Amino acid sequence: MKASFVLKGHIVWCDTPDHIQTVPHGYLVCEDGLCAGVFQEIPQRYQSLPFKDYSGRLVLPALYDMHLHAPQFAYRGLGMDLELIDWLQAYAFPEEAKYQDLDYAGRAYRAFTEALKTSFTARFCCFATLHTPASLLLAEYLEASGLQGYVGKLNMDRNAPEDLCELSADRAAEDSEAWIQAMQERFTRIKPIITPRFVPSCSDALMARLEKLKDKYVVPVQSHLSETHDEIAWVKRLSPGIKHYAEAYDRYGMLDNAIMAHVVYPEDAEIELLRMRGTMVAHCPSSNANLRSGIAPVRRLLSAGVKMGLGSDVAGGESIDMLRIVTNTVQFSKLYWRMVEPSEPALTFPEVFYMATKGGGSFFGKCGSFEEGYMLDALVLDDTKLRTTVDLTVPQRLERALYLSGDLKLVQKFVDGQPIL
After folding, report:
1. Contacts of 383 (CB under 8 A, 6+ apart)
2. How large is the average pLDDT for residues 231-238?
3. Residues whose CB falls within 8 Å of the CB of residue 197, separated by 6 or more in sequence, listed in order
4. How many CA atoms lie within 13 A of 131 on its CB side?
5. CA Rg value for the chain
6. Which of 115, 201, 245, 255 reaches 20 to 30 Å from 415, CA-CA?
7. In whole numbers, what is the pLDDT of the chain averaged over residues?
8. Per-residue pLDDT tens for 162-218?
9. Which residues have a Cβ under 8 Å from the Cβ of 284 and sit 6 or more positions away?
10. How far apart are CA 286 and CA 269, in angstroms?
11. What phi, psi does 306 have (nearest 5°)?
12. Across residues 334-361, what is the average pLDDT?
């Protein structure tokens, strides 16, 4: 049986994108790992539950990182003056080749796991490398951490260094199938996700085989989509006859139950296809800026009904701090409104907080809110170091905390009702 308890604090969450709910000095009830509700006073039926007193602290849903690269964590903050393809050649590919060495992979993935465990992230979708033993080791560390999410063994068979390409599409599919089987047998918190890096590095033959694995084992997909102008032109040369980049995935069923990162330059027909397929877009503002990709039209995607979450995209993004990703999203949306498309209003803070919590959380099930029946993923934040003479409301304290996250103290993090710090 999962944990049951009552947690006291300034409770704050979003159940809709346009409003932040708050219950100052409130009580959040967890029953068998699920939210039973938020109350101003503890209902009689819950008064015998264990009590956790976080009076004066902010209690909010934990955040969800919908796109990051675990093997890139070691060199985050480097090469931020390069564009995407040059950055991959200079940093990503040389680093990922090191994960053939399981000792190196162990040291790097331990550091990544320890950092993610003590971050504001509860659940995630991350890329590993094509090396099966190292990818399983990453999953092992993450499983033990108490976090939950998806790990993807990378797939590439073209347009990448020789030591990072599978020998053939058949061999790649065999390795991926063995990895999926091992993941499903060994782990419960960490699950497999089909991971073609992107269309330029995956042949049609490989994509066709990955589609069969997706259907056979009923696992989701993650990849990259429409990140740069050069990438989009490259895809159209490699896949003659497609109407747009997304179609190169859709012809292999890769947009269903999928997360596509970036989507900086979508065509109207592409947006409609993403909506129809129910694809979630992982918006990665830090990476889009660092690697000169551009500013994604998030408002246009949301208005069209496309599902949206947020991603750190480490190490294209320099930090796994998802609170910063929230504020970066708000800031860059204002630049998009001012400099690109004045007819598309900038995003509001509640809208983006929703994307980081309930919006992205929907990929994992009923996650990201304190509504009844939702899995209890929560952060307890101490913002007392953020000194001020202003009398702030709880929503104002939340907004200020996210913008000044470097001075926050993470007191506790709950994942599926379990404290993990």
Report:
1. 57, 58, 397, 400, 401, 407, 408
2. 96
3. 127, 154, 155, 156, 160, 223, 224
4. 21
5. 21
6. 255
7. 97
8. 999 988 999 999 999 999 999 999 999 999 999 999 999 999 999 999 999 999 999
9. 67, 261, 262, 310, 311, 312, 313, 316, 317, 325
10. 26
11. -80, 135
12. 97
The residues near 143 (Cβ < 8 Å, ≥ 6 apart) are: 186, 187, 188, 189, 190
pLDDT (0 to 100) of residue 127? 98
Tell me how far CA of residue 298 lies from CA of 51, 122, 263, 276, in angstroms.
41, 23, 9, 17
Residues recorded for the chain: 421
DSSP character string of 294-338: ----HHHHHHTT-EEEE---BTTBS---HHHHHHHHHHHHHHHHH
Whether residue 1 is predicted with pLDDT greater than 80 in this model: the reply is no
| Residue 271 in tokens | 């947006």
Q: Round to whole Å and give the CA distance between 194 and 169.
A: 14
What DSSP designation does 254 have?
Answer: T
- Give the CA angle between residues 245, 247, 252 to the nearest 5°: 125
Torsion of CA 372, 374, 377, 381, to 10 degrees: -30
pTM for this model (two decimals):
0.97
